Amino acid sequence: MRKANPSNVTIRPEEADFFAKLARDWWNPRGPMASLHEVNPVRLAFIREAIDAHWPAARGAMRPLAGKAALDIGCGAGLVCEPLARLGANVTGVDAAAENVAAASQHAEAMGLDIRYMAGEVGALDIGQFDLVTCLEVIEHVADKPAFLAEVAARLAPGGLLVMSTPNRTAASRVLLVGVAEAVGYVPKGTHRWEDFLTPDELAVLLGDVGLEVTAQRGIAWRPGRGLHLSDDLSLNYILSAKRV
Fold it and tell me: Which of 46, 65, 199, 203 is a good FRET partner for 217, with 20 to 30 A between their CA atoms?
């Protein structure tokens, strides 16, 4: 197992600054983060499937995470934290940008949700371990991916569940997720560096190096008349669940 960076710094400062500038518009479904609002129900559908598979006793329950602690790494302004709280979890959200944490806290308070938000590198925060860890559309922005995943794994409690999503590094993602999406304003320019994308096999190996194994995996695809949806097509984005080996 490769050890984490001793400095606990895995996020590029310029990446954190880029997303910090978007904080005030994060919850606007027609703003610069509109693509996240569009994909969020798809990601949450997979998360619910993964929860039901991992904790079958709570399958179909309104609050399947009641009594469990959840951590969302790279939480932005809380698009995933708030649904996890409504599923019953005691939620902590961590983001490298203090501006995002401030926006998340303000929105959660307005919604009447008790969510703990913290700014900083996950490896530098003394926050303990969690039954559920989510890390969605984050690792492609990380400089030291093995070190980051070691910190992610360290936050996962025994018997816990990890859910991650990220773009795949394919010719299709280079054209559509970077070229076209940024050209037409679907995502803000500068959001992605294609060379930082990981293939599913690469991510599975990195997870294996920190003692985790992939338990389920789906693509996030788009087609006319249906929009974004879970699919067997992994060529653009994919989402997976993992547990300790």
Answer: 65
